[in-house]
## 1
Amino acid sequence: MKVYLDNAATTPMHPLVVEAMVPMLANQFGNPSSIHSFGREVRTVIEGARKKVAQLLHASPSEIFFTSGGTEADNMVLRCCVLDLGIKHIITSPIEHHAVLHTSEDMESRGFAKVSLVNVDGCGRVDMNHLESLLMENPKSLVSLMHANNELGTMISLVEVGNLCRKYDSLFHSDTVQTMGHYTHNLSELPVDFITGAAHKFHGPKGVGFLYINHQVKIKPYITGAHKNVICVEGLKMFMALWV
Amino acid sequence: MRGGTENVYGIVGLAKALEIAYEHIDSDIKEISALKKYMAEELQNSIPGIQFNGETNPEHSLYTVLNVSFPPSDHSEMLLFSLDIAGIACSAGSACSSGSNVGSHVLNGIKASPDRTAIRFSFSRFNTKEEIDYCVEKVRELFLVKA
């Protein structure tokens, strides 16, 4: 008998997910940034996927950014907050995922930001009083605390931590990789600025994830290169549609 | 916002997977939580001195993760390996004694005892009660028969 009890590491793909992916692998090869019909078809599929994710999370499509996974999304938040938004202080915990811990350490070692670790108890619960005192001493921080710890399963209250961050004018990032697809996240109500997801933790494929960025927060591209301007391409598509 | 040609099929798969997850979320929470509770109880009934790492209040604990702390014993270090031989995949973590660079930073962060062995079992909608029974039986064999 073979038994797989390591679903926090990764999950098997759902057969319907495989089914949905096959036509994209087999037929629709167009570059989504191309403005001809091959590209436009694929662009439509991507924007449909973005809309679907946004809808499920009660967010706006313009707040959803696809990444290579949770690690890239976490890196993007921390590095962009420091480099673009002038964050000088990161508050995280000693039991965060290395994507957050090592990125915070990197920002600190380069002299870009100071890092404080909030105390956790023997069960991995965040000491909320300590968090408040850290925020009091360092307003305008970035707080990065995972929704559920990947090793222990211990969870934080996104509402409680988020409200505390708002009170001290700080940004709140939660690595929600372990809870995405396992709990409902209503982003129209949650006081969070950034949350992350990795498809392979909820029976999707590896190598793809996403980052939600609250529309009030503006950061610059983290991976630079040719990137499309959705509005421009969409406008062009409508224009082209008149011709074909 | 992010340069580079999109991972088209990955993005399609992600959206589909999230859609399916949301369709079944209430029943999944119920069923997987029950599996976790069942495994915790069965292990507790089988192995003296067993404990659990992390939050134990189910309201504040991820229903897909059960981190089991096994009491010190001669073969507990071989537990993960032995389970793997028996066809059971799970993850190990350990707290390290000071100075050592190995071990789980999470278990060190909560000051877990380095003498105990931690094994993380994590579940999905595809797991069954029969699989849990098989796993608990194997753990019991490894732990009690060889002890």
## 2
Amino acid sequence: MMDAHEPPALPPQKRFTPRSIAEGLATLLIAAGFIMLMQPFAMVLYTYSFVVLLAGTVLFIVGSKFPG
Amino acid sequence: MSDSTPIQRLADQAAAKTPPRVVKRIRGLSDRAIAWAFITPTILLLLAINIFPLIWTIQLSFTNYRANRPNAEVENVGIQNYERILTDSDIWFAMQATAHFVFWTIALQTLIGFSLAYLIDRKFRGHAFWTTIILIPMMLSPAVVGNFWRFLYQPQIGLFNYIVSFFTGLPPSSFEMLGTVNLAPWSIIIVDTWMWTPYVMLICLAGLRSIPDYIYEAAEVDRASKWRQFWTITIPMAAPFIMLAVLFRGIENFKMFDMVNLLTGGGPGSTTEVASITLKREAFEKWRTGYSSAFAIILFVAVFGLANIYVKALNKVKNR
Amino acid sequence: MSGKSSAHSVVEPTPVTKRIAGAVVIIYALISMIPLFWIFITGFKSPPDSISYPPKIVFEPTLEGYCNLFTTRTRQTPDYIQSLPPATETCDEITRSRNMVIAGASNYLPRFINSVVIAFGSTFLAVALGTLTAYGFSRFRVPLADDLLFFILSTRMMPPIAVAIPIYLMYRELGLSDTALGMILLYTAINVSLAVWLLKGFIDEIPREYEEAAMIDGYTRLQAFVKVVLPQAATGIAATAIFCLIFAWNEYAFAVLLTSGSAQTAPPFIPTIIGEGGMDWPAVAAGTTIFLIPILVFTVLLRKHLLRGITFGAVRK
């Protein structure tokens, strides 16, 4: 623990890149899909949860290829 | 000591048996060739045992195939299986049972696990020993342990009921953890929490230990109260680790099978019939292979989506 | 460990805080050990003691549970038992006192041996493949490395029942159903993902300079791998092997769906142990105890590497 006093140097990062936007959106879709899949309120939401999940997952895979 | 590793022994044996001409050729292998030679076997195995079956499942999910009637004619039914699952209120109910299980196990495990980690991080004497003791339940076989909890939950003779009645005064035969609609979902939550709180605790502990002392020292210089330090330093700095634990427990409990199958088997009725239990009933009891393949794909896509987020969380923690 | 934080550091908790924290943690640890303690002592109870009310902590220990675990018994008339030559072994004696005689060996031992064979076989394969692959990813520029690594990890995340459907069909076609080979291949495939991720972390930590120095001395890349990297990674390989072993040892979902007889492992077998008229809890407890002891040993051996193992090598401390 010799270097514990040196704050870690963070690489300069751009906040919004095509990739971070796509991944953020994909994460939102996946989270929404999960809530839709498991919520006890409306059958319609459950029915369309799979489409949302699939869209989120595909966007995540494609989005991770975007520049950023 | 190096001579005793099995891989090395194997490599030595292989080297001894290889004719010199071949050795010469292997020696001449380029780095590129070695890289591929090292990676390909694993990829091939995974293709054979994981990806090929997955593709087969996708194909089956569009048919009405039944594994117990291999000779019956198989019809292509398009997306009918998916339509039926996504409009089936029984399956929807199973997803809600899963949600109840996932939500409460994660909530309890995070709360207890983080508290324990925080206390262990006070570094009292013997904390390493007690940490190891606490970790034991998560290493055990969920099936074997789940089976034994059935004994602890027995109404009259079970230890769990006895302890509860000792502290509350309820007669120990008056409630049945596994057989009552209201209590059965909690019985599996209790066992899962007992088993996996150590997991959350261990990861939270790593998070707490990754916070450098100088940040607290600086806060102390600024006269920030302990309470304020906790909410503005401890929690935000440990958050990526907590997230990691929550995501992984979420994935694991979303597909939970072994422990629930042995404790309640989905009963009473279908109150604890979580997704994997429903899938097993459809696939291996009713033998509706095509239909259950579609359900498997739905669960798989859900888990795969979470796994993507999980790996992103892993990378975030890795850079710390 | 504490480095700069001396006794006067503002970060160091006060003795009172420490004592309270210690007390709470120890109480939690003791409570969480109750179920395991109960499994252990139930294994030494007689069947009536095991189901007595209130639950007995003080009882006369007997090996009946262990005898019942390893044998099958048949009920006989007292006259017939009287006519037998005197019992020579403890188990004979206990069984006869219950008006029964030992009819043969139970399935527990073969199931336990299956567990050992399948766990060690799959661990060996997974670690061997995993070491090679991890080295490949660690030292060479592999195209699409991140995607391949994610693909490898995601295979471990799949719900077991979802995978079991096509595996069941595939093994039926290939004749691998209920064979040790089939289970070894399956567990290898699942464990290899963990092995690759963990070992990549361990190999990443070995400085490349070691191999480069060896190669300057005239070693080929392969020799450098065998003579320099493998010994350096020995601890990591051992830790990874124990993780794989524990997974294969504990696995239930695939085992219960894909094996039924000759290749069945202990986890699906233990819940099927039943006695005359209800569960034979001492025998179940005995079987559980024997099954859990190796894991306890492994947990203690692994304690320094546990964190790495459960985070796929991401958290290293």
## 3
Amino acid sequence: MRMNSYYLKRTVRAVLTVWIVITITFGMIRLLPGGPLEQLRGKLLRQGVSPSRVNAMIESYQNVQPNQSILEQYYEYMTALLTGDLGQSFLQKEPVTAIIGDALPWTVFVMVMSTLLIFVIAIGWGALMAYWEGSTFDLVSSSASILFAAVPFYVLGIVLIIVFGYQLELLPTGHRLSPTVEPGLSLLFVLDAIDHAILPITSMVLTGAGLQVLAMRGNAIQVLGSDFVRVARLRGLSDRRISVRYVARNAILPMYTGFLTLIGFNLGGSIILEEVFSYPGIGYYMFQALEARDYPLMMGIFLIITVALVMAVYIADLTYGLIDPRVKSGDSREAY
Amino acid sequence: MSISSDVLNEPQDRDAIIRMDDVSVTYDSGDSYVLDDVSLAIERNEIIGIVGESGSGKSMLASSLLDAVPDPGQLSGSVEYRPVQDQNVEVLALEDSELRALRWEEISMVFQGAMSSFNPTMKIKEHFIETLEAHNAPVETGLNRAHELLEDLYLKPGRVLGSYPHELSGGMQQRALIALSLVLEPDVLVMDEPTAALDLLMQQSILLLLRELREKYDLTMVFITHDLPLVASLADRLAVMYAFELVELGPASEVINTPTHPYTRALLNATPNLNAPLSEMRPVKGKSPAPINVPSGCSYHPRCPLDTEECRTNHPPADPVTPEHTAACFHWEEARTEISLNYAETGTNDGDWR
């Protein structure tokens, strides 16, 4: 009963968050004086477009009848959203959903790969540092972790482009595929996609792993010093079992929520990353939309990023109880 | 506990199950002693209580019995384990694999803080199974024994085994840990402050259970605690530690009723008891030394009212008070008259504490 109410609570909260974000963006775009729609209308009128055509265009862009009351507009907008209609992009002359549908898989690919690599490296490396606590390896790794964590990923990204793209000419400097390669289920496509993703992923991983490595090191040292590990050694358990079932499991648990939320946060971080690498994912289009005041596209992508983050937190909350028996109902371990 | 001479000097005469000789534990490459030349014979089937204040080396003594001193501590001396009377195993000379077999199969240990002795992500049952498997013991018979042990400890075996550690109360975890420590049928159970985290009622009921377990499974128990009155009712013999050394050793009733070492007497005067008014309680003046700065001679001399030049320069040997009772003090005879106790000194076995 308690568990059910917990899941219900989390679900309601997730839906509520998304709804509030939609409402706020709707309100901000529409209610600010001299908002983008007025600006657009003025621009179109100055270009000599007839007022009835202007109204029709605005309506198609935003699913809005300009002469409706704000509540009616809101209702129209929400129902359009629920049917998956995010409006029409000014810039690309395409439905926003089509643009996102094309771009999102690439961003997800880069960001999920980055986050996965960050955590694989963090868990392995951090555990080794903990086992050899105080060694030269530990010292050098700690310093390197802090150094890399202090470098912004876009700075490293630019350095990587200069070195590997322009000087060594080993890897492409941008774009998600070579012009000659068509998406499809071919080895060529897969290799080309990976080739283009290496530098963005590398800049995310190198700058993002540092803090996670240090976190894992701290967790593992704490677990290694705990009574239950000492008792397990005295009970004669094999070193292998102790490192997997005792140390690794208990050290990784606290990082699980961080892992899921980092995926969500990184989707937002894609705006700068993809601009640096001219990598046409949702972040790249978001940047273009910002520059061109393409509000429907901006709102659509903003919505996707928000939903992704909310979903990440939601999944973390719902599944934490499955991996940590101490948190059956989850209340003490909410991600946010 | 019958005839025979001084325990510390000629322990060979007794049926000792574990003999410690000149056991020391040092840290900082020998600069600080946390256990200083301790010799002690633990007799078969006895319950021996090791008493001392925090930081007196009690836990180090317990750990050295299993050669399990935390790194980077250096253990020296000799710990002999005698599974049967004429068989000697030098614990400190064992290979890793032999040590693995000795621990838990022969000598088992219960730590303070049962709550942190179980892996929080594993059910209690898995702890039993993995322990049995690690020692190549048949799992089925082992689990049957676990069931019996848990029942002996007044727990519901099915429920406890199917629970995660956090689902049990502190007292239940402590008893489950005792059952886990006995699952491989060891001869010796070393308990380091096993009841420190429990309330008084639970402490008492665990002590009762321990006595029942000793009878049923022919156990030898080493019970380490800072709580003198607690162990006085349980132990056959008491060993009092001060500054990483044993200062007094004897039958529990004698140590309580006719304490001999000045430190033991001061300690008893500082312990609340029903027969002495609160105003008679006296704290032990001063503080116990840190491992890096142990006084020369008798380490208790700076706090002792009886100290003389001899105490400052010479280290007092264990002196027999009675054949079974020793005290490491040059002036123990004066101590009996000079340091009066705040309760009646009886010299009999049915003292105020028991």
## 4
Amino acid sequence: MSDLAAFRADTRAWLEANCPPSMREPVRSDKDVTWGGRNPSYANPDQKLWLDRMAERGWTVPDWPTAYGGGGLSPAEAKILRGEMAAINARNPLYSFGISMLGPALLKYGTEEQKQEHLPRIARGEIRWCQGYSEPGAGSDLAGLQTSAVADGDDFIVNGQKVWTSYADKADWIFCLVRTDRSTKQGGISFLLFDMASPGVTTRPIKLISGNSPFCETFFDDVRVPKANLVGELNKGWDVAKYLLGHEREMISGMGSTGNGPLIAKAVETIGTDDTGRLADPMLRAAIATFDVRARAFAAMSERFRDELKAGRAHPAQPSMMKYVGTELNKTRHELLMAAGGSDALEWEGTDSDHGAAARAWLRTKANSIEGGTSEIQLNIIARRILDLPLQ
Amino acid sequence: MPLFLNEDQTMLADTAREFLGEAAPVAHLRRLRDADDPTGFDRGLWAKFAEMGFTGMMVPESAGGLGLGHVEAGIVLEEIGRNLSPSPFLTTSVAAVAALSGTSAGEHWLPRIAAGETIAALAIDERAKHGDAVAMRAERSGNGFRLSGTKQFVAHGHVADLVVVAACTAGSAEDAEGLTLFALAADTPGLTADARRLTDSSIAARLTFDNVVVDGDAVVGSVDDGRAVLNRLLRAARSGAAAESLGVGEGAATRTLDYLRQRKQFGQTIGSFQALQHRAAHLYAELEVARAAVLKAQQLLDEGATDADTAVSVAKAMAGMASTLAVQEAVQMHGGIGMTDDADIGFFMKRARVLTEMFGDIGYHSDHIARIGGY
């Protein structure tokens, strides 16, 4: 048996023995999602068990170095682990902006001390991170941000406001873009890490069209941050920010490649099939089938993108393409889910609809093509950086 | 296996791109079209395919070929698509070879295909839309069979040496069983071809089988059990057509991007306009997704994976959508120039339409995905 075949066999056996049956059930709502942090919440004690078992092996971050709490797996091994987890429908043990966004940036730009301090805690789900990027006046034009950090001895003093900070009210630490030089735009931005429990930090959840409040306004009023928490060089934060955005887009694009099983099951349940086994609504069937083709093709694209990324052959702007396609697909999926659910899916309250879960999820997806850079910004990036089309 | 080309495959892609770009660029198609060429392709070019080893690339080494797979065939087909190079490569060296490999009929035909001596045509379709039913009958007669019926949209059917034909030997047209595949010489008495030039200047024939008698050696695989062989043929044909479609789409997109960078209006290159940039970027994304779907299908076919059928239908449908978008955007963004016969871009639109229709269109394959998915 080859090494990889042996790894696959061992992985399969370990997952079979260690992944609790309830962690092989689909995630139904945000309550089922494990975010970790100082004040974790678990709808089911198996979530904690599953997290701890996976973290113990470094498999919450399979391809990070073992020295920082990772699994130290090769790209081929990490692919096998993903495949074996998917084969038993194993849930992701830990959702974390630390894993999907900050970790890769720290691995590339962080000091050894910063890596030692933060990465193992991210891997074990001990610290929950949020992202301080957008501001009221700096959305698509992110580099126009104004939140300032002024040197004061060994510290920076941070003042300003962020917006659309995902789960800022539940996060323990923030990675934050701040202005350290007003004389230039991109060249005056720095990348800081600080504790959300620091004096002067306040958050205010924003109620969205879904009725939920996953995003906050975040205010900084003379927040004192040690200079040791600067990632990368002073005024070079835009490089870190862009690198991290690539990973954020990668993560958001992953939403496009979740399975089509729930959509088809819902349509069959609501509408039924004719005597040839076809969905009884031919127009909806055609729309779902077209979506199905595109979603399956995108799953292949995601596999190819990950493989190219690991091999260092992906175009640096390719995450923009993935984000654009993945989020547009996810919006289509939820439009179809609403159509498949019919008027049942419109119920906003009550246990029959799980408190409007379908409708709230549908509304939530409308942000997919806005957050992390709008679809239009992604198309700009593709046009300029991949297709090399000129500026107007 | 990572989902990108390995080193050998990348070298093959470079070789194929250089070869087809020089030997059969779009100007080559235009010359054939202008000369009203009755063959539909250039036999000199086919001889070069044989010299390159392309004709037998999927033929097992034991039969004189290179023993390569669907991924490698797809690499050549993508370049064929990019250059719109007319050739019987898809029908002969990909689909017919896939059907004949490992069969006793293959022992006769495969070495001849590898040597470039035999051109194959696929007699599958019976109606204007590709479907699963096979109405053509083959009745037992002595040691062999007597075939009667008609087939259409048979590419190269008028010049082929070998015709691979699906016929019903038991049961009814819609049955999965009772189907048999035959490989017969095109000059078998009773078989006639009516050549039709298509939109893209290629030639496809309507074939009439009027009591065509073949002996048992013509059976590919086993009698009444031809569905598996036909599926093998169709998987190769569909993934191959998808790869060629992708190449057509890429060729159209590349020319269009060049045009956007050079054409000036309102004192600026039109490629600087955001309205066009966004459409070009969207097209790029569609083609990239199609490229991944096509390679995925080919890798699964080469692995002999059980779920390859799904991936093949995804590839054919997605490549159809992406290439259709590519040629439509190409003509629109070229403006009036795109409508002229002098510009090459129209050739891309015509070829994309033919390939999208071949071996099941977007609707056929989307429906197939739905049926596999149980809805």
